[in-house]
Automatic annotation (TrEMBL):
GO CC list: cytosol
Boundaries of every D-isomer specific 2-hydroxyacid dehydrogenase catalytic domain copy: 7-306
Family matches, as Pfam families: 2-Hacid_dh (PF00389), 2-Hacid_dh_C (PF02826)
Domain of life: Eukaryota
Ranges of residues in domain D-isomer specific 2-hydroxyacid dehydrogenase NAD-binding: 111-288
SUPFAM superfamilies registered for this protein in UniProt: Formate/glycerate dehydrogenase catalytic domain-like (SSF52283), NAD(P)-binding Rossmann-fold domains (SSF51735)
Gene Ontology molecular function terms on file: glyoxylate reductase (NADPH) activity; hydroxypyruvate reductase (NADH) activity; NAD binding
Family: Belongs to the D-isomer specific 2-hydroxyacid dehydrogenase family.
Keyword Oxidoreductase: yes
Annotated keywords: Oxidoreductase
Name listed for the protein in its UniProt record: Glyoxylate reductase/hydroxypyruvate reductase
Length: 315
């Protein structure tokens, strides 16, 4: 039997070549998201689909594909774009790429922490806008990591990677809040705390937990009011965890002092959203895992997941 797979995006060749070995593969030949009507048309009759986080793999797509669909492999850690419970009901396997992106995501989060703490964007803007005069002792002063408390919301692979990387910056204390992962805490000397303590005691608070009913919009007006004075908030997980209107108001009120977001809700954040103009907020376009090495490894992992799963099915 010829096993059919559809790839919804142009991905690195290292991934494609795995798929081309034994599968009958077709793909959307662009890096841009597929128009919905094309997605619905092209998945018809496929045994496997390789998708990305910007393809909404809902019931309509599963129906359009048909009952022979056995696997959805996503080139991502997150699976929020896939109707996983519907897939389960239909016996469709959902596979992601959890291990290969953690280092680049952690490294990027550390970059944002330093960038926000040292007010880099304000400095760069001042240079470009001609506001750079002769040196002034108290101009654009930020804060150093030494002696500070790092708070991690979600000490999984990415949270652990952040803690491990920032620890040598003479961090005084690492605290974390996580209902599931406890396995990494001892190797970075992190102390488990409840959410109110995490909010009240973190100087740099990094959100790297998964979006769940408990965490979605949990960073809201009430949470911001509990944050430590002078603290910064970084979100590289998923935008839905933070209420962006509340964050804009909280930044204007001074608590947190500044924020760095690599993820927003929605993505992209509308250009006229007040956070876009808030000088206390740095927003990057979901580029936490965007390195060549990680992208190639993600493509290889997603392709192998699809390939192995479909060939097992076929034998
Ligand atoms: O889920 C993921 O893998 C990231 O958000 C995109 O790389």
């Amino acid at each position: 039997m010829s096993v059919q797979a559809y790839i919804t995006r142009q991905i690195p060749e290292e991934g494609m070549s795995i798929l081309k070995k034994k599968l009958n593969v077709s793909s959307w030949c662009s890096e841009n998201v597929m128009p919905r009507e094309d997605l619905l048309k092209h998945v018809k009759g496929m045994n496997g689909i390789l998708c990305t986080i910007s393809d909404n793999m809902d019931k309509e797509v599963l129906d359009a594909a048909g009952p022979q669909l056995k696997v959805i492999s996503t080139l991502s850690v997150g699976t929020g774009h896939i109707d996983v419970s519907e897939c389960k009901k239909r016996g469709i396997e959902v596979l992601n790429t959890p291990d290969v992106a953690s280092d680049s995501a952690a490294e990027f989060t550390v970059t944002l922490v330093l960038l926000v703490a040292r007010r880099l964007l304000e400095g760069m803007d001042a240079v470009k806008n001609g506001e750079w005069g002769l040196w002034k002792p108290m101009w654009i002063c930020g804060f150093e990591m030494g002696g500070r408390t790092l708070g991690i919301h979600g000490l999984g692979r990415v949270g652990f990677g952040i803690a491990r990387r920032l620890k040598p910056f003479n961090i005084e204390r690492i605290i974390y809040h996580d209902l599931y992962h406890k396995e990494y805490a001892s190797s970075v000397g992190a102390t488990l705390v409840d959410l109110p303590t995490l909010l009240a005691e973190s100087d740099m608070l990094c959100i790297c937990c998964a979006p769940t009913p408990q965490t979605i919009k949990s960073f809201n007006k009430e949470a911001f009011a509990k944050m430590k004075e002078g603290s910064i908030l970084i979100n590289t997980s998923r935008g839905v965890i933070v209420d962006h209107n509340d964050l804009d108001a909280a930044l204007k009120a001074g608590r947190p002092m500044a924020a760095g977001l690599d993820v927003t809700d929605p993505e992209p954040l509308p250009i006229d959203h007040p956070l876009m103009k808030n000088p206390k907020c740095i927003i990057t376009p979901h580029q936490g895992t965007s390195t060549w090495a990680t992208r190639i490894n993600m493509a290889k992992a997603a392709a192998s997941n699809l390939y192995i799963s479909l060939l097992e099915e076929d034998n």
